[in-house]
Amino acid sequence: MTTPGTFAPRPGAAPLPRMIRAQAALETRMLLRNGEQLLLTVVIPTLLLVLFSTVDVVDTGDGKAVDFLAPGILALAVLSTAFTGQAIATGFDRRYGVLKRLGASPLPRWGLMAAKTASVLVTEVLQVVLLTVIAFALGWSPHGNPFAVLLLLVLGTAAFSGLGLLMAGTLKAEATLAAANLVFLLLLVGGGVIVPLDRFPDAARAVLELLPISALSDGLRDVLRDGAGMPWRDLGILAVWAVLGLGAAARFFRWE
Amino acid sequence: MRSAFPEDPRTPAVEVHGLVKRYGRKTAVDGLDLSVAAGTLTAVLGPNGAGKTTTVETCEGYRRPDAGTVRVLGLDPVADAATLRPRVGVMLQSGGIYSGARADEMLRHLAALHAHPLDVGMLIERLGLDSCGRTTYRRLSGGQQQRLSLAMAVVGRPELVFLDEPTAGLDPQARRATWDLVRELREDGVTVVLTTHHMEEAEELADDVAIIDAGRVIAQGSPEELCKGGAENTLRFTGRAGLDVASLLKALPADCAAVELTPGSYRVTGSVDPQLLATVTTWCAQHGVMPDRIAVERHTLEDVFLELTGKELRA
Predict the structure, then answer these.
(1) Residue A13 is nearest to which of B62, B114, B159, comparing CB atoms?
(2) Which end of chain B is more exposed for a tag (fewer CB within 10 A), N or C?
C-alpha cells in the first residue's frame, strides 16, 4: 500500500522545451545503444575512409586519395544517419507501437519529429568530428567555405530524412530494414562516394548526378577539395529532394 | 480560468453515443452507448473481437468515429487531443515501448513529459519492476512488460486512465498487484476504464460493468445489479431420496421451481433470498429431513453473459 492520495490527479504537460529535450536524449541513447546502427553510422564510414585512403583500390583521380574520399565519406555519414538509420529505427518504432503510445503522451507530434531531427543532428556532429579527426590523421587538407559545407550537410540531412521517414511511415518494418540497407549499398557505389562518377558511362552519369547522395558528395568535394564557393547546382538538387521527400512523408506517413 | 477538473462530480468522464466504427466491410462497433461517471471504475467486459479495444481507442483519440459522438472529460478526443493528452493516461494492449529501452528509463521518460509526475522509484517498487535492472524491454517477461505499460499510464497523474486488458497474461500474484494499484487509483479519485474478458476481474474491481458483444453494449450496471438482473438464482441441497417435491413446492413462493435432479439431490430455482432459504429449511425440519450440503449459487457475470449472448466469454 501507498499513502492515500498518492495517485490523486494532478495532470499537466511538462514545458515543451523539456519534453523535446527529453525525447531527443532518449532517441539518441536508443541509437547509440543499437549495435547494427553503430555499424552503419560509425564502423562502415570509418573503415571505408581508412581502407581506401591507404590502399590504392579505386582510382580517385589526381591528388591525394583522402582529399577525394573525405568529402564522400562525410556525405555517406549523413546518408547512414539521416536516411538508413532513421528509416530503420522509425520503422521499428512504428511497428512496436512506440509512435502510437507517444501519440497519447503530452508531446505533440511535431515535437516528436523535432526531437528525432535533433537526435539525427547530434549523431551527425559526432560522426563528423570522428571522421574529420581520422581524415586529418590520414593527411587530409580541406579548403573552402565552412558555411557552404554546413549548408550542404543541413540540406542533405533534410533530403535524406524526408526519404527515410517516407519509407518508415509507409512500408512494413522488415521491408524498410531491407530496402534502407539496399539503398545505402547502391548509393555508396553509385553516388560518387568512393567511386568517382566519371567512371560511369555518360548516360548513367547524367542520371546518377541527380541523386541526393551525388549532389551532397559532389558539393562537399567541390568546396572542401577544390575550394569552390557556393555549389548552387548541388544545393538546388538537395533542396528539391528535401521538399519532395519531406512533403511526401508529411502526406503519406502512417503512425500505426 | 477554467478548472482542470469537472465542476460537477456527476459530469460523466466518458460519454459515447451511437458509436459506429467500421474497418473496410467489417463493423467493429455498431451503435455503442457508454457512460462512465467521474471517479468510478468501469469495466468493459466482452469476448475477444467484441469491439472493446476499438471503443477505447476511439475514446483515446486514435480513431475517428464513422458515426456517433464521443466525449472525454467533456471534450472531443480528436479535435481537443492536445488538451486531453496530459489529462488522460493510456495503457495499450501491447507494445508502445522502445525495444532497446530499460524499464526505469522508459518510465522516467514518460515522467519527464509531465508537469507533476509520480515518484518513479515508488512506482517501480510498487509494481515489482525493480528486478528488471538493466534488462531492455524486448527481454522482459510478458508480465513485466504489462506492468511497465500500466506504470506508464499512471505516472503523469492523470484524471482518467484507459487500461486495455491490464492483466492479460499475468500470473495470479502480478494480477493481484495490478488490482491493488487499480483500486488505489480509484480511491484517490482517478476515473478508471478497463477492458477485460475475465469476469472475476470485473466483479472484483468495478463499480460499473458494461458488457459488450458484437460491437454493442448489451447490459450495463453494477456487478450486483447485473447478476440480480439476470435469470433466477439457485439453491441446492441434498437429503433423503424421494422427498415429496410437490409438498415443498406448495411451501415456496409461486415463482419458484423445485426438482429432484438425481436421487437425494434437490434444486430450487427462483429469487433466492433469506426468506426463501428459511422456508426451505423449515419445510425440511417439518419433514424430518436433514438438508446436507445446502448451497446458494449466485449468478456470476459469466452466467449473465452466457444468458444474454448464448456464448462463453472466453470462447
Answers:
(1) B114
(2) N
Cell numbers representing residue B203 in the block? 466483479
Rounded CA Rg of chain A:
20
Q: How far apart are CA A109 and CA B82, in angstroms?
A: 10
Closest among B10, B87, B246 to A9, alpha carbons compared: B87
* pLDDT tens, position by position, B233-266: 788 899 888 899 999 999 988 888 888 988 989 9
Query: Where would I find the beta strands (DSSP E) of B165-264?
Result: 191-196, 208-213, 216-221, 233-238, 257-262
Separation of alpha carbons A252 and A150, rounded Å: 29
Mean pLDDT of chain B: 89
- Going by C-alpha positions, the residue among B150, B108, B104, B96 that lies closest to residue B131 is B104
Domain ranges for chain A: 16-252
* Amino acid identity at A8: A
Q: In this structure, are residues B268 and B245 in contact, taking their beta carbons and an 8 Å threshold?
A: no
Residue with cell 540540406: A155
Nearest to A2 among B88, B99, B122 (CB): B122
Max intra-chain CA distance, chain A: 77
Contact B166, B205 (CB under 8 A): no
Phi (first) and psi of residue B250, to 5 degrees? -65, -35
What dihedral do alpha carbons A221, A226, A229, A231 form, nearest 10°?
A: -30
Q: Does residue A41 have a pLDDT over 80? A: yes
Spatial separation of the C-alpha atoms in residues A224 and A216, rounded to whole Å: 12
Mutate to test the interface with B, among A30, A105, A255 (most CBs of B within 10 A): A105
Q: Write the CA distances from B169 to B96, B202, B203, integer angstroms.
A: 17, 16, 18
pLDDT at A218 over 50: yes
DSSP notation for A17-80: HHHHHHHHHHHHHHHHH-HHHHIIIIIHHHHHHHHHHHS--S---SS-HHHHHHHHHHHHHHII
**Beta bridge partners of residue B270, listed in sequence order:** B233
pLDDT exceeds 90 at position B292: no
The rounded distance, in Å, linking the Cα atoms of A238 and A216 is: 7
SS3 state of residue B295: strand
Terminal Cα-to-Cα distance of chain B (whole angstroms): 50
| B→A interface, C-beta within 8 Å | 4-5, 60-62, 82, 85-88, 90, 92, 94-101, 105, 109-110, 112-116, 118, 122, 126, 152, 154, 156-159, 180, 184-185, 187-190
Question: A133-137, B136-140, B297-301: lowest mean pLDDT where?
Answer: B297-301
pLDDT of residue B305: 77
Q: Across residues B27-47, what is the average pLDDT?
A: 94
User: Vertex A38, ends B111 and A117: CA angle to 5°?
Assistant: 50
Quick one: pLDDT at residue B271? 79
